[in-house]
Amino acid sequence: MARRRSLLLAATGAPLAAGLAGCGDAPVQRFATLADARVAVAALADGRTRTADGWPLVKVLQHAAQSIDYSIDGYPELKSAMFRHTVGAAAWGVFNARGAMRHALDEPIPGATTLDATLPLEQAIGRLMTAFARFDAHTGALKPHFAYGALDKPAYARAHLMHLANHWSAFVTTPPAPGPSA
C-alpha cells in the first residue's frame, strides 16, 4: 500500500517533474561521483557501520550491486512500458531534479535473486566494488531500468549514486574507540 501511494505521488508530480527538468540536474546529494561512492564503500570495511532502518548492511551492499549489474545485464522483471513511460519517467524526473531519491529501504528489485544476510562484510563490499568497476568499463548500451525506462550512462550513474545515498541515509556509524591516553 505504501509503495502504491509513493507511485501515485510520483505520478501526480509529473507536471512538477517536467518543470523541474528544465532547471537542470541538481547535484547528487551525498556522492558527487562514482569515485566518491567507491571511497565511502571501501571505508565500510572498518566494521563500525550498521543500518538503523531496512536491511542489514551486507544486504544493502548486495542490493546496490544488483541494481548496477542489472543496468548492464537487464533487470529480471520490468514494469509495463506504459508505467515506465508515465509514472516511472515522472518519478525519475523528480528524483533527477532533486538530486535525491526515496524508496522503501527493504524492497527488493522485482525478480532479483535473494540477498544473503550471512555474506561476510568484506565480500559484500567486494561485490559492490566489482559492480562499480563493470559499470565504469561498460561501453555498450545499457538496459532499461525496471521502473524508469531507458537511461543513458550519465543518468544511470546519477540513479546509482542517488540509490546508494538513499540507503546510506539509514547507516549509523559508531565512533572509533578512544586511543590509549598518554
Outline of the structure:
It contains 7 helices and 2 strands; from the N terminus they run αααβααααβ.
Helix/strand layout:
Elements: H1 2-12, H2 14-21, H3 34-43, E1 49-51, H4 57-73, H5 81-98, H6 121-137, H7 153-168, E2 171-173
Antiparallel strand pairs: 1-2
Keywords:
182 residues, mainly alpha, two-stranded antiparallel ribbon, 7 helices, 2 strands, 53% helix, 3% strand
Major β-sheet annotation: 2 strands, antiparallel
Mean pLDDT reading: 88
User: Low-confidence segments, ≥5 residues, pLDDT <50?
Assistant: 4-23
Helical element count?
7
Specify Rg, calculated over alpha carbons.
17 Å
> Overall 3D geometry?
globular
Characterization of the model:
The model is unreliable at 4-23 (pLDDT under 50). The protein has a two-stranded antiparallel ribbon with strand order 1-2. The protein contains seven helices and two strands, in the order αααβααααβ. It has 182 residues and is mostly helical. Helix 1 packs across helix 5. The protein has one domain (27-173).
